[in-house]
Amino acid sequence: MWLQSLVRDDADRETLFRLDIATQRVAVEKGPKDQAVIELTGVYHNLLRRWSEV
User: Fold this and answer.
1) Is residue 30 part of a domain?
2) Ramachandran angles phi, psi of 16, nearest 5°
């Protein structure tokens, strides 16, 4: 099976991965409705939109 990422740059994908892991850790510690989790999730999605190639 072949899979292509929407984010071309390796460093950008790594940044998104690390941000996602950190967001998940904060969500476990503080809960998914914590303001920090909501803000981090928003940043993740904004970067994904910016860096993705459609």
Assistant:
1) yes
2) -60, -40
> Residue 30: which domain range?
10-51
42 has a pLDDT exceeding 70: yes
Q: What predicted TM-score, i.e. pTM, was given to this entire model?
A: 0.86
- Residue 23 structure tokens: 């967001």
Q: What is the CA radius of gyration of the chain?
A: 13
The Cα 16–Cα 22 span in angstroms is 10
Write the DSSP assignment of 1-54 as a string of letters: -----SB--HHHHHHHHHHHHHHHHHHHHH-TTSHHHHHHHHHHHHHHHHHB--
Tokens of 24: 């998940």
- CATH (domain of 30): 4.10.860
